[in-house]
Each structure stands twice: as structure tokens, then as C-alpha cells.
Task: structure prediction
Amino acid sequence: MSKTNIELKSTITCPECGASLVEEMPTNACQWFYECKHCGVLLKPLEGDCCVFCSYGSVKCPPIQEANLSGVASCCTANLNN
Result:
């Protein structure tokens, strides 16, 4: 599988104030916290999601994208309660 199919940027939208910002996602780990640059609220993943990008981003995190493309469980899917 080619890593070129993995999107590395996601527009994260704060559920508190509605502000959106394009952010680069880490490629080898989940991001559990994100502080909104507009209102300062600390975002945490919603139940069942591995990271803030999966909960509030326009694109799921790279490990989830890779798992979806390859069909192989990622570090993220192994830790989720289904």
C-alpha cells in the first residue's frame, strides 16, 4: 500500500465555538487532545474514537486511513471498543 493515499491534513472544527482550522496530523500516533486556537476549549476524542481528528476533523487520522486502505487493524483500531 502506498502512503501517498494517506491525507495528512484535516480541518478540525471546534464543537464549542464552531471555529475551523486546517492542521497537520501526526502519522504514527493518535492525538488525544487539541486546544481550540479560537476559544481555548480542550477537545478530547468522543467515545469510540481514537483521537480528536477522528471526532472533529474532516479526515480521519493517518493510522485509521491506513487501516481502511489495507484492511489491517492499526494501533488505533486495536484500542477501540466496538
Notes: The first strand starts at residue 9 and ends at 13. Helices lie at 52-56, 62-70, 75-79.
